[in-house]
Amino acid sequence: MFRLAVVPPSLRGVVRRLVAYDEVSATVVRRRQAPTSTCTLVVGLADPLRVDGTGRAAFVGGLTDAAALTEFAGHQAGVQADLTPLGAFRLFGVALPGLVALDELDPELARLPGRLADLPSWSARLAAVVAVLEGRLATSGRGADAEVARAWWRLERSSGRTPVAALADEVGWSRRHLSRRFSAQVGLSPTTAGRVLRFRRAADLLVPPPGTPAVPSSVADVAAACGFADHAHLDREFAALAGCSPTAYRLGWSTVAVDPAEVEHG
């Protein structure tokens, strides 16, 4: 089961996607998790998920330009919220460095797995996560600088193809000042964030996210659509950011992706 919930208006701009998941496998399921444009909140309710060899039950992951290998065998279930980087900054007050366990962030967040486990349905669990995030927003301090928010918006709109110099000119800051403030609030420099955004668009064209219709595309077509110089350029970016070729990435997910028949909406 993979339920895509509707993000309420109160969390739009903060939560990109809200999911409840429940899957069982008698054999080890390995997934190459390439860098994304979101921070990931995971509240696990079953067996720990191994991330690069370390068991993780409930955690938040900040933006990164490195791939991770997740593994599980047995039962995986929980709630996942994909957060915008600026939304995560509002919720937690910092740009998160890598993976951080919930009990290291806040006692209320640390209690979430136990609270969700006691609830009778996935709808109730999703609602509980929404309530916690809404509560944190209501009491959070200021968000990111308007200039940082504008620079991120421009980068995301262009899938990472806006030069840093153009971003700095648009917000009225020097490149150095923009890079320093952007890194502190987003978690990556503008240059690295742009690289990840462009890579992520290519990765999503090769392996569409659950609930998104697949559009058959060759690797060469994806390279052209995302502004890479050629197939070889895309190969180099995948080797650097995903640790494999685009073809190997697509093939790897072909056997472990969420079955479209198991995707629910609402």
Automatic annotation (TrEMBL):
All copies of domain HTH araC/xylS-type, residue ranges: 164-252
SUPFAM superfamilies: Homeodomain-like (SSF46689)
Pfam families, sorted: HTH_18 (PF12833)
Tagged with keyword DNA-binding: yes
Transcription regulation listed as a keyword: yes
Keywords assigned by UniProt, alphabetized: DNA-binding, Transcription, Transcription regulation
Gene Ontology molecular functions: DNA-binding transcription factor activity; sequence-specific DNA binding
Domain of life: Bacteria
PANTHER family per record: BLL1074 PROTEIN (PTHR46796:SF15), HTH-TYPE TRANSCRIPTIONAL ACTIVATOR RHAS-RELATED (PTHR46796)
UniProt protein name: AraC-like DNA-binding protein
